[in-house]
Specification:
It is a single chain. This protein is mainly α. Helix content is 65%, strand content 5%. The protein has a two-stranded antiparallel sheet. β1 (2-5) and β2 (9-12) form a beta hairpin. α2 runs antiparallel to α3. The longest helix is centred in the first third of the chain and has 28 residues, at 16-43. The chain is elongated, with a radius of gyration of 19 Å. 24% of the residues are buried. The mean pLDDT is 89.
Length: 158
Amino acid sequence: MSSTIGLGVPVPRMLPVTGTWTLPFTAYLLVLTNRVVYQRIKNKQWIGNQLNGDKNNSGNHENPDPLFLESRCHLNFLENVPYAFILAAIAELNGGNRSFLNYAMAALFVMRVGHVEVGMRAKGTLGAGRPMALFGTQGLLAGLAAYSTYLVKGYWGY
């Protein structure tokens, strides 16, 4: 399983797990991005992340500012997913179990979608998806970091 570059030098495919998960994560990022763009066009709010600068409405759980809500959904995704990809790639490059990494990325995808669709966009913005995804994502990030460290323990003489 390799490809060639230049004069036929074989190069192995080094990141098939993280490469596999780029499509679903990117597709969902585009959904989140387009929701923000839709709110901007609909409300003619081209800059900022709140409609008409209404800072008092951003914390209103029952009737949230739609642009603020969609911006936060987008930003929450961007705060966690790139770091998870970096950790998964480090583990994969250091010989991590591909099945484990696939399950971890699948779990992350479900948690991040759940955070938005069953959490932030639920009635009152306080759906069950928010805390489950928050703590699940934190646990997954910590687990991937610990796993990556475990994989290189021989480098440190352990």
